[in-house]
Amino acid sequence: MGAQPPNPQEIVAGLLDDERFRSACGRRDMGTVFRLLNHRGVSTRRLAALVEITQGRLYDYMSGKSRVEKLALFEQIADALHIPGRLLGLARRSWEPQVPSSADEAPPPPDADDLDAVGAFRDADRQAGGGRLYQAVVRHLSENVARRLVDSADGLKAFAAAAAFTEMAGWMAHDSGLDDLAERHFVRALPLARMSGDMPLTAGVAASRSHLSLQSGDAAQAMHWARAGLGVMSRGPRIASLVARLHAMEARALAAAGEAPEAERSLARAQAALHAPQETGSGHSWTSPFDAASLASESALVLRDLGKHEDALNAARQAIDLRLDGRARSLGFSRVTLVGVHLRRTDLDAAVHAGVELLTTTTALGSVRFVGQLAELRRAFSPHCAYAPAREFLRLLDNDMGKRSVLLADIMRSPCTGGTS
């Protein structure tokens, strides 16, 4: 089967923080709007059908030969593509939920049952990995959350819950090594978060998309999403930990792109944000916590990519020290980073010592993504197999990865699907 054509409404949701898109809407330049959608994979035939015009008329708009002038057509386009009315100078559309009237007005608090479920899933995920929890989260989303989206009495709370659980499903798919599926969840979570009126939740989804872009090697896209999240946070309540997370994602993207001075400045902004006096609280009901250990872990990756190996070692050690009492998966990833930095310094004895410690402290971690990182370590160690301690470590690593592969075989072989997320 071929790839599904992109959903124009989802693409519009991803463009709502794009300055070119917002500017085109503000000018009511629908030709530019159509070109932006076409460049992102929406065919002209599909665009014309959606907005109920001929392809010839669409080409005229896209080429600048003519412009949309009639109010009824602007409304038609807004409703077909789910462009919020305010961007085109229109009244709020019927499909737009009522959102808080100002950035300082908080969205309604989440239901206690939703928060309890998020907390339970999140705790189990951190300790053992998300692969075996994915189906449970999707089932909860389908059976307990999705039906509430059509219940007007539940209002914005349902959209926020749907966004939060959809984002969580994305992270669990990512932990299962299914990044295409994770991307689909994150794409779906973004418009749900926007429609809930919860700006920190929207910015948190942007941070998740930035992370996933980094994993696929797309530094430019990672930078885009980090900065889009920061733009959202500039208009909403300031959650210091979330601002720090977004700056850290920006720093990682800049480091991956080789922009060293800018990456270090972003990292400094992340540090400043995390340690600044709290204006509206240090956390948020839906977004994952981002603390000093999280920042140390991200800092180690930034500094590693910038070639500052001593600083990267210190940051990785700090992340490990701060995680020794919990969050097994984060601790495991920090140990992987530590081993990798030792290898970059060609300190093989230190790398072997840290590698053995890595294997002996993560036996219960059931994460396909973690197994992938072990495989990357194996490739990094292989050129040093002539050195006996490295060769012995590779034997231990192969044995460990074999056991993990058996335990995770059902996850690794069967792509997770389904759900209404």
Automatic annotation (TrEMBL):
Stored Gene3D superfamilies: Tetratricopeptide repeat domain
State the InterPro entries in the record: Cro/C1-type_HTH (IPR001387), Lambda_DNA-bd_dom_sf (IPR010982), TPR-like_helical_dom_sf (IPR011990)
The protein's superkingdom reads Bacteria
Q: What protein is this chain from?
A: Helix-turn-helix transcriptional regulator
**Organism encoding this protein:** Streptomyces roseoverticillatus
